[in-house]
Amino acid sequence: MGRNLTKLVFLVFFLRLLISSSCGESFNSDETRVCISKRGRFLPYESDGETPMPSSLEFKDLNLCKVFHGKTCCSASTLHSASLALENLATYGEATKDCLDFFELLECSICQPDVGIQSEPLRICASFCDRVFEACSDAYFSRNASNQDLVPCGASEGTIICGKASKWESNGTAFCYALGFTVQTAGDLTEEPCYGSKSSLEPVVETVIKTETFAWFQDLQKLVREMTLVQQISWVVTLFLIGTTVFNRRRYQQQIQAMIERDARRLMGNMNGNA
Ligand SMILES: *[C@@H]1O[C@H](CO)[C@@H](O)[C@H](O)[C@H]1NC(C)=O
Ligand SMILES: *[C@@H]1O[C@H](CO)[C@@H](O)[C@H](O)[C@H]1NC(C)=O
After folding, report:
1. Closest listed ligand to the CA of 173
2. What's the CA gap between 44 and 57, in Å, rounded?
3. Preceding peptide of 113 cis, ω within 30°
4. Which residues form the Folate receptor-like domain (predicted)?
5. Which of 5, 9, 58, 102 sits at 20 to 30 Å (Cα–Cα) from 123?
6. Which ligand is nearest to the Cα of residue 171, counting in written order?
């Protein structure tokens, strides 16, 4: 009985934590700021000038950048080149699972809601570039003949030289620049935070890459984030009622059992007395 109560208290506490953390998130990002398209390797946002929104079905179908499906400036078209690059990396790049995960997070930078509403350019943290480079140093890339950008080796580029990332570049910063990104080093004194900083992305990176068992937690968190406050409250109340019912039923069963035992003992006592 005590254990059930502990479980219930934990569940309610956990849900409250979940809700307050998801509310805190939307509180942090300024609701009035709109998506600002980034130039360079990225196509303009279809939602340029609008606030970040939950991703479209078409975007969800791409099965990319899941961590940002809740709220983003991206649509499927924004990710066309990223999707192709990741497909090539997975098919021809001999990339490890870590490399694919990190590379996807890098390509998805454009879809992070905070990045979406930032002024240009899209800045990737040097420390994050180092992690991507570390994970992908043995994966195969080639240079785009027309703009010299680094791209994962693809089927159509059979005649172009393919080489490991570590053969093309010597560090993460150079790697990110070669991929067409702008890099922000720790020394830069910009007010806007960069993408992939410890505080902004580490929790996401850790949950996505290190502990996939937490996928359910993310789904749950996303679900809660997409609910309205009324829905969230009614959910907690429902769970609380279910918990209370289970708890009461247990107590009821235990009371019945105690009653039966008491009666049995009395009966035994009577029988002994009568004998
Ligand atoms: C190579 O660069 C050109 C010009 O920027 C671009 O149109 C093309 O899509 C790039 N190719 C690949 C495979 O990324
Ligand atoms: C990274 O590599 C580039 C090109 O090889 C070099 O110019 C730069 O100094 C290096 N940066 C660091 C932090 O090592």
Report:
1. 2
2. 19
3. no
4. 54-179
5. 58
6. 2
Please list the alpha-helical segments (H only) found in the chain: 2-28, 57-62, 80-92, 97-107, 113-116, 126-136, 165-168, 172-178, 198-205, 215-226, 229-274
pLDDT in tens, the chain (275 residues): 455 655 544 444 444 444 444 433 444 445 678 999 998 788 899 999 999 999 898 888 888 898 889 999 999 988 888 888 999 999 999 999 999 999 999 999 999 998 899 888 889 999 999 999 999 999 999 988 888 889 999 866 555 789 999 999 999 999 999 999 999 887 776 666 889 877 666 556 555 554 444 555 566 666 667 677 777 777 777 767 767 776 677 776 777 677 667 765 665 565 555 44
Spacing, Cα 266 to ligand 2 middle (Å): 87
Is any ligand 2 atom within 6 A of the Cβ of residue 170? yes
Residues 6+ apart with CB under 8 A from 142: 150, 151, 152, 153, 154, 157, 160, 161, 162, 163
Residue with tokens 């410890």: 198
236 lines ligand 2 (CB under 6 A): no
Measuring from atom 9 of ligand 1, which residue has the nearest CA?
81
Tell me, in angstroms, the distance from the centre of ligand 1 to residue 146's CA: 7
Which residue has tokens 């979940």?
18
Tokens 């479209």 -> residue: 56
- Closest residue by Cα to atom 5, ligand 2, is 170
